[in-house]
Design a protein that fits this description.
Blueprint (H helix, E strand, L loop, with lengths): L3 E5 L4 H12 L4 E5 L7 H10 L4 E4 L5 H10 L2 E6 L6 H6 L1 H22 L3 E7 L22 H18 L5 E7 L1 E3 L18 H9 L6 E4 L11 E2 L1 E3 H17 L2 E7 L5 E2 H12 L5 E4 L14 H7 L7 H14 L6
Parallel strand pairs: 1-2, 1-4, 2-3, 4-5, 5-6, 6-11, 7-10, 8-13
Antiparallel strand pairs: 9-12
Helix pairs in contact: 1-2, 1-8, 3-5, 5-6, 7-9, 7-11, 9-11
The protein binds nicotinamide-adenine-dinucleotide and uridine-5'-diphosphate-4-deoxy-4-fluoro-alpha-D-galactose.
Length: 338
Amino acid sequence: MAGSVLVTGGAGYIGSHACLALIEAGHPVVVLDNLCNSSPESLQRVGQLCGEEPLLVRGDIRDRACLDRIFAEHDIVAVMHFAGLKAVGESVEIPLEYYDNNVTGSLTLLAAMQAAGVNNLVFSSSATVYGDPATVPISEDFPLAPASPYGRTKMMVEQILTDWQCADGARNVALLRYFNPVGAHPSGRIGEDPRGMPNNLMPFVAQVAVGKRDRLFVFGDDYPTADGTGVRDYIHVMDLVEGHVLALQDIIAGPGLRVINLGTGRGVSVLDMVRAFEAASGRQIPYEVVQRRAGDIAACWADPGRAAQLLAWRASRSLEQMCIDSWRWQSDNPRGYG
Ligand code: NAD
Ligand code: UFG
């Protein structure tokens, strides 16, 4: 594939790992990121790991002039669209910021792509679009019922992209629904660097292990699951971004719209995660069971069959590997990118 991939949100957690995977697969990248939740240090480290630092354009996906300049100055053949806000609780408090950033931002990006004749897009969607599923595992044809403004932004952008693709058969779109991305590059040089109190389980556990927080709060142990704690499908970020590279190559090879779950197909409870992290880190993870978190569901894991069929992709890294790599990142970089 000649030309570069524009990676929006490329300085962030998943985006930085995707940049590395793209460059290693021979696809040059240009990053557009406003750095509202990331550091340019992530891209410098990507450069150290692969010998080619991604070009960073500091700008906003809602800035049409900035997008037009990028498409005019670079030979962009495809876009991987990670940029957006992602905190479920925050989206309930400031919904307009979420709709503006995630939906208006995506519309502005699409309009600029259309003007520049760029037809290929891989979009970061989320298993949150399924809401509380009637059964597990979850396949792509399950009904969509997101329970938060954040989830609704993802569903809306999926619908917009479906209509955009349908309007012109030359357009190619992959909607990738991630389950719970965790872990870090095995070098320990790039990883997840949440600002303030982590919302998600794995970074919280990692901060307890490194001594930054004194204990984990387990949000409920009275769910109808084997040990009573919430069950999720944690997927190693390296598996996730390998799925992205394959999805990109797939849409470029054959036009159309694909909707694909990216998960392992395995459910892991909060207490399974605590035990696995203790084994990987050699540290104790003290925890206290507290009330359920509003909006949480009992159990959620993927049917990853479509990804296997369409992309010949399966997540291969174990829970142990996720914890080992997360611990290496956390212990080598106790203050994140600093
Ligand atoms: P992240 O916050 O680390 O990365 C997002 C990046 O986008 C950041 O670098 C941020 O600075 C940038 N950004 C945000 N708004 C922007 C804007 N208007 N213009 C330009 N840049 C902007 O998050 P992440 O975990 O890497 O998630 C990436 C994508 O994957 C997001 O769209 C998120 O909703 C989606 N996703 C994440 C998860 C998860 O658990 N991490 C799960 C499902 C889906
Ligand atoms: N949990 C705790 N204590 C914590 C944090 C989480 O017990 O401090 C529990 C939760 O109750 C849940 C499990 O750990 O049972 C996982 O919680 P996360 O917050 O890590 O993940 P969620 O499944 O709630 O949500 C994440 C992202 C969403 C995304 C969804 C599906 O935050 O944006 O995965 O991809 F939509």
